[in-house]
Design brief:
241 residues; alpha/beta; 7-stranded parallel sheet; 3-stranded antiparallel sheet; 30% helix; globular; binds 2-phosphoglycolic acid
């Protein structure tokens, strides 16, 4: 696991966007694993800038997002599909049919999970996976648990995640209690992983991830086993290392 510390969130975003640009320069038909939440917003903004400057071309890219809330369709402004359209897809030349976010509204979500993993495999696997990290150490919506779940699956969100995500909704009661998320196995199968963490609220989770035991109680700690995982931090997120 490679850890790099930057002065602030802007510097992290710039470095992350450059890693994506390098990935596309090397392999124009890359399969990208993408993430939502507040952490990647600035990285996506930098990627849009690079695209506008002619330094990134997404025309052959496929993208698979980590997760989606159960019960929120693509038109719901708190859904992760909506987020991706607003924050990235609408501003670059990725083909809409090449962007994938698991459905949180299908009848059989177990089937959605199986089909999602199969689609990732059929696309050749993820070349570069972007991750944020929860205050509780989650990646995607893989919450602290007594075991790791490998495949894309339905998860019950913890109270801490529901509270942390209330800021995106009108009230806590509106936050969905479940999500569908890539599993830890799906995430770990990516050839390269880029985890970003910003701010002091993430400092303990970052410490547990980098310096702690590998345990499903801190899902991100599994990244210690990945041969090509890079963690980009601002100084606040790195303050407990
Ligand atoms: P955040 O969420 O980027 O909004 O802090 C990250 C996460 O929960 O994975």
């Amino acid at each position: 696991m490679q850890v790099r510390v930057f002065k602030d969130a802007q510097a992290v975003a710039k470095a992350a966007a450059m890693i994506f640009a390098a990935q596309l320069a090397e392999k124009s038909d890359s399969v990208l694993g993408l993430a939502t939440g507040s952490t990647p917003v600035e990285t996506y903004r930098k990627m849009i800038e690079l695209y506008n400057e002619g330094q990134m071309d997404f025309s052959k890219v496929k993208s698979y997002n980590l997760d989606e809330y159960v019960g929120l369709g693509p038109e719901h402004e708190c859904s992760y599909r909506y987020f991706m359209q607003e924050q990235l897809f609408n501003h670059i030349n990725i083909r809409p049919e090449n962007t994938f976010v698991p459905s949180g509204v299908a009848d059989n979500l177990d089937q959605v999970g199986l089909a999602y993993d199969e689609a990732v495999r059929a696309a050749g696997g993820v070349d570069l996976q972007l991750l944020g990290i929860g205050n509780n150490g989650h990646i995607g919506f893989n919450e602290p648990d007594d075991h790791f779940t490998s495949a894309t699956h339905v998860v019950n969100l913890t109270e801490s995640t529901i509270k942390a995500n209330t800021r995106f909704f009108k009230s806590e009661s509106e936050v969905p209690r479940q999500a569908i998320s890539m599993g830890v196995g799906t995430i770990m199968s990516a050839r390269k992983i880029l985890l970003l963490a910003l701010g002091e609220a993430k400092a303990q989770a970052v410490r547990d991830t980098v310096k702690g035991h590998i345990t499903p109680r801190v899902p991100a700690s599994v990244l210690q086993l990945h041969p090509n995982a890079i963690i980009l931090l601002d100084e606040a997120a790195a303050s407990k290392l």
